[in-house]
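Memo to structure team: turn this sequence into structure tokens by end of day. - J.P.
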Amino acid sequence: MGLKFGEIVIEWADGHYSFRLGLAELEEIEAKFDKSIFEIAAALGNRTAKSKEISEVLRVGLIGGGMPPADALAKVRRYCDERPLDENRTYAYGVCLKAIQRVHTDETEEDAPGETEAAIETDTDASTSPPSEELPQPTK
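Reply from structure team:
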């Protein structure tokens, strides 16, 4: 089975973990910090995020990726609170970017409508624009 939209698997802490900020997770984070996910992602990207924003993105992302909440809290306490802040900021930033770049559904990427290659007709010039009119030539 493929990844869900917004899901990313990262080698983090003591293994490979699935992180996902679906709509419910995004709303939880936004409500907690009274900021949009775009503001949080920008703060993570330019290194102005608060330490709690870093750890919450990772904790909620782990839960969204399928980890039980108690396990996610324990992992974040051990591997986020005990590690260099900027190291985990990078992971949290990646989780946020993955979340905001896609539409969130329960479908897998391979099942997503509109994600298949478009068929190109070979008897056209491949443009979907109407033909342009010939421009008048300047007179001398």
